[in-house]
Each structure stands twice: as C-alpha cells, then as structure tokens.
C-alpha cells in the first residue's frame, strides 16, 4: 500500500533514505516539519506486482463476496462468516491506511486523509455496507499505487543523474593502474579513462585532446572536445582514445555532486501554490469532518422521518469525497515534473517557486559578454603611439592583464604571448568597472576603458566613440600610450532567443559595462528592445531598480559571479554557462548548464506549462469535489461517485501532471 499520496516533501530517493527514521525517533517538531507524519517510503522501488498485490488480493475476495451475495448464493455465506469474509478483504488495503491514521493522531494531525478514509469505511462496516466499504478502500489503494508509479517516473531523471557518478575509478600509481573507490581518490591523483567510461571526479585533462559526451550535465548531445589543461567534469563520458585526467576536486565537491544536491533540494523550495494548498488542506479537512458530523446528526432536529443509518451513510460519502488527495499529490508532482523536465534540458531550478516566478516574468535583462556573445575575444587592431616601444607596451599590458580573469585578458595573451619573469608589477589594483592599475619600472601603468583614463586625468586623442569593437585603453607614465580593439562574436542562437522572448511578450534588455557603441551594435543585430552600455556595477543595479519600478518582474541573466548584486535584486537570477562555476551555482536561482541563450525562453516556457498544468488540476479537483459533495449531502451520490470524486480525480490529475515530462520544449 503506497503512502506517497499526501506527501508534500517529494524527497528524492537519496533524500528519502536520509530522512527515514523509526516512529520512536521522531520528535514532535520533526513530525510537524514533514507535514504531519513520515511519508517517506521505498514504495517507488517495489516491483509493479508487489505494489498492486494487496489490491489484487482484496479485489479477488471482494468479487467473490459480491458473487456469493448476488449471483450464486450459498447458505453458509451469512452472519459472522459474511462479515469475516469482507473484513479479510478489507485488511490488505485498509490496514496500512488505519495505521497511518493512528500515526497521524499520535503526532496531533487529527484530520489527515487517512483519518477520513478510515472513519468513512469503518462507518460503512458499522451500518452493514460491507462491499462498499471494501470497494472504497480498494480503489483508494489502486489510486495510490498508480500515483506511486507516477512519482517514481517523475524522479527517474534524478536517478539517472545519480547513475552518472561511477563508484570506481582507475588511478595511476607508480606506473601501474589500480581500481579504487571514487570517494577514495585524492586531489592530484591521475585517473585513466578508457573509451566509453564515465569520469568519476572533476579534473584537468593531461592528454593532448579528448572528446566527451556531456549530455548528462548539459542536456547537449553534441560531443565536446577538450584540449590539454582544460577542465573536465564528473559525469562526462570519454568517446575516443584512452585519456588521463588529474583530479582537482574531491568526490563530494564535484560539479555533478553540486548539481545533484541542487536538484534534490529543489523540491524543498515550495511555490506559493504548493504552500497555499498545504495550508488550505489543514483548514479544509477539519471543516468537512465537522460538516459530515452535522450531516449525520442535525437532520434529527429538522427531518420528520429521520433515519440515522441513512444520514450516516450520506455523511460517510461526504467524508470520502472530501479527501484532498488529488490536490495534495498532483500539485507537488506537477512542479517536480517541471523541475525534472528542465534538468533534462540542462536547466537547473533551485525551487518550484522559481518556476512560478519565471512563468510571470515581464523583462529579461541580460549581460552581453558570455551571455549573448561567445565571450571568446580576438585582438583586431593595435594602435600604439610612436613615442612608445610597441613591443614593451604590449608585453607590460599582457603581464598586467594576466592578473584578471576577464576573457579580454585571454585574447591579449593569445595575441602577445610573451611574458618576462624579471619584470615586477607592484601595487596591482583592480578598479571596478574601469580596469587595472599597477606600477612597473617606477611608472604607473593603466589598462582598461577610457573611463579609467578620465579618472586619472589622462588626456587622449583617440576617436573611439563609433567603434563597434571593445577598446582597451593604455596609459604609461602618465601619458596616453594607445589602444587595442577586441571583437567578440554573437552566439548562433542569440537572435532566435530574443525573437522567442518577444513571442512570449517578454521584453529584452541588455546591460553591459562595455562601451555604448559596441552594446548598441549587438542590440541592433539581435533586435533587443533596450540596451545600455558604459555601466558600472552600481549602474546596473540602478537600471534594474528602474525596470522593476516601471515595467514589472525581472529575470537577470549573467555569469553569476560579477553580477551577484543584480542577481540578488532581480526576481529570478539566471546564471549562463554555470557548469564550470561554483559561484554561479551558489548565486543564481536558475542555472543554465551550457552557454546557449535559447535555454532562457525554454526555461520560461517550462515555468508557464508547469503552472498551467497545476491550475488545471486545481480547477478539476475543486469543481468535481464541490459538485459531488453537494450531491452526497443531498443523498444523490453513493460511495461509487465518492470514489470517483476522490481517487478518480486524483488519477486524472496525476496523469495530467506527468504530461509535462513528455513535452518537448
């Protein structure tokens, strides 16, 4: 008998094991924190046959009993024998529910659905409606079993992720290779990875080149080719030659472990809809219980030919109908399905509340570099004043830029290449939104944008206003030394991304610290609604505040590190290319694991579809229950209609909720 129906925690399999305790180990506080009593079970691991076995036994006994009652009557099938027959038929499906009801009462959750079902069916026994009592609990058990299967399927994606972590790795030790447990591998160990094997820990590639299948991490099926020295991550599958990797992070600190932890924790961050339903059920269930008591007793004072058993039957039907099962299972399952669908496509949500927020988003504010452009820069032009030694200036610029992690630094290093270990850079300082400053050979060296030169009152004669490339200004010894222009290419799916946002009536805004001419050029190419350049970090914050005040909700898309203040301010913070960044996973609300901007509208669409399905379920459950509750109170609905209103609607809601797992976004 499944007990997952009214679980609102939706723990993943690993989390379930961590939370499982005996009843005696529960404190009252723990009990309340898990919604009244422990619903964490391993039913999702049972075979289908074992899951349905109690219901099968009960069904066979029920059908036989109905046969003896109506079609091939037996003289011995009467009195205590008949009662005992139906009691035995009831026990396989009813006993687990009664046990849960008792557990609920132990922890002062008096009005759980288990309590409602127990009272309704035991009451039916009390008035001699044996077949209906068994049938109600039987259909409830079947519904629960189907719901368990649905939950299991919804969690399948996380199980697949868990499977991406190999238990063992092959380590090089003194020229020989030894297989050890992955968690025993240490930082600095060299792993051997054969074709078709999954990497167990994060590391750097020691071999010259290797191709990897990264679909488990990014949702992207295209192979990713890495070169010597590049980062490779746990869960990647080696596609061609034998490869060696040096471990850089412990097993539990790998990016995949962080992703798994993120997805597992996501269902604990409840959406407003889930929180409302949880609170609603706690108020709604006691109300309908007292209404049922009223239906059974109050007519005594108003109805002339009052028959207690007749009104008790109506009250019991009312109780069965009132079970909030359809809402309590289908809504969390709908959100869980949305989180699972997103993670399958390389999008990680930190909670179902962000699915709701993205569904209602009005503005997507994006950074330029690395978000809508490749972030891979190339030096296009070098202009150095004749009075300066060009090679010396470029050498110093390259050495200073090596202190920065900005992609521009890589472009300059690729262009210049040279460094000189004998040259010492002193008092290196990074000036936010401007550039870098140092002292070398007794002279001040400034490398950054032209605002940096303005800040230090250095005059320059370069006309850079209309350049559509990023410009790096250089000053040395208090004089303007020249500049470099650097270009960045727009991502292939960036234009389609903006078009999809417009199709959703979402406004696209670009904020960048790059110069306005460059930002406007990119914005024009992508048909972005509004763009602002030459922004300092505090300017970005002010712009987002303006948008929030005037145009509604904002999702900010950036790298999750430099844009932390803006991500914190926005309704939803989205980190692009977050797979390689611990800070991105920590900072953002949503992590897009690859660099594809097209995942932004996909994430919004998943949020919209999830919310749509959840509200369909809420509407269906409330409408059917209200109709059948009225009919039940008036004596026009039997236990069979009650079963449909509870279990039938729950099954329909669950089937609707799992649709999102099959959708293509």
From TrEMBL:
Keyword Disulfide bond: no
InterPro entries: ATPase_P-typ_cyto_dom_N, ATPase_P-typ_P_site, ATPase_P-typ_TM_dom_sf, ATPase_P-typ_transduc_dom_A_sf, ATPase_P-type_domA, Cation_Transport_ATPase_IB, HAD-like_sf, HAD_sf
Catalytic activity field: Zn(2+)(in) + ATP + H2O = Zn(2+)(out) + ADP + phosphate + H(+)
Region (Disordered), start-end ranges: 1-41
Keyword annotations of the record: ATP-binding, Cell membrane, Membrane, Metal-binding, Nucleotide-binding, Translocase, Transmembrane, Transmembrane helix
EC number, as in UniProt: 7.2.2.12
Biased composition (Basic and acidic residues): 22-41
TM region positions: 49-68, 80-98, 110-127, 133-151, 283-303, 315-336, 613-633, 639-658
Compartments reported by the entry: Cell membrane; Membrane
SUPFAM superfamilies listed in its UniProt record: Calcium ATPase, transduction domain A (SSF81653), Calcium ATPase, transmembrane domain M (SSF81665), HAD-like (SSF56784)
The keyword ATP-binding appears for this protein: yes
Highest taxon of source: Bacteria
EC category name: translocase
The P-type ATPase A domain, residue ranges: 165-264
NCBIfam families: ATPase-IB2_Cd, ATPase-IB_hvy, ATPase_P-type
PANTHER family: CADMIUM/ZINC-TRANSPORTING ATPASE HMA2-RELATED, CADMIUM_ZINC-TRANSPORTING ATPASE HMA4-RELATED
Family: Belongs to the cation transport ATPase (P-type) (TC 3.A.3) family. Type IB subfamily.
Name under which the protein is recorded: P-type Zn(2+) transporter
Organism of provenance: Paenimyroides ceti
